[in-house]
Design a protein that fits this description.
This protein has 9 helices and 9 strands. With about 300 residues, it is an alpha/beta fold. The chain has 2 domains: about 160 residues, Rossmann fold, CATH 3.40.50; about 110 residues, K homology (KH) domain (GMP Synthetase, Chain A, domain 3, 2-Layer Sandwich), CATH 3.30.300.20. The strands form 2 sheets. A 6-stranded mixed beta sheet has the order 2-3-1-4-5-6, with helices on both faces. Helix 3 links the parallel strand 4 and strand 5. The relative contact order is 0.14.
Amino acid sequence: MSNFKSGFVSIIGRTNVGKSTLINSLVGEKVAITANKSQTTRTAIKAIVNRENSQIVFIDTPGIHKPKTKLGETMNETAWQAIQDVDVLLFIVEATSEEIGKGDRLILEKIKEKNKKTILVINKIDKVEKEKLLKLIDIFRKEYNFEAVIPISALKNENTNKILDEIEKHLPEGPAYYDIEEYTDQTARQLMEEAIREKALKLLNEEVPHGILVEVEKMNLRKTTKDQDIYDVEATIYVLKKSHKGIVIGKDGTMLKRIGMYARQDMEKTLGTKINLKLWVKIKEDWQDNQSIIKRFKSE
């Protein structure tokens, strides 16, 4: 196909600015877990948008934050690495900011250093008055020559299509890297692990979620007696402390049942298949500093 464009776009920003919500909105499928808690995304997730004249491969990165563990350090490394070999950067900031804060400043300096084509996306415009928004746009425009500044509300899906049009303008001509039926590079197993973790993040109190690691030990597809497809899934939720184990299980196992039920419903929708899910909770102290575990969160 002549004049077909394709390329890679990295989404970068502080934790909790709405990167994963935006990526799901752009792709039209759930590829990144979302929760109103910091450090939700732990790895660089690829999400694919197929358009009539282009294929855009998004890389959703962990939010830049001050690391307290080896996991935190690795997440930051992953985010910085994702800036290197992409065609366009999407730098997401919050409309509620009144100035360029420390975290945004750090990212901005990295962008300047790499001199990358960057589109500034100002998210959560539904939370501020227009006057404040215009001031913020002015502050950022004075700092860097952005290809475009696009104010949006990822949650309300407002203005998000403008982002795709703008990206397409700046992509090189090239072939489609992925099949047009694909929308993520994650396996069904990874999607399942993330679905379980997302439900835990949303349902549990502040202290517990960041210490959670989910591992799917078994995921087998079989036929039911009625000749329907069903996945048998066995997964373990690892926590850092004994007290956390009790919280995740809940009184009479109620919390664990809720996490399992919501994760199963989510994944049945994503995979279009029935799921039989069994969950366990175990303690794995200091896994966030365990190199053999952290290895899997590193970008390749």
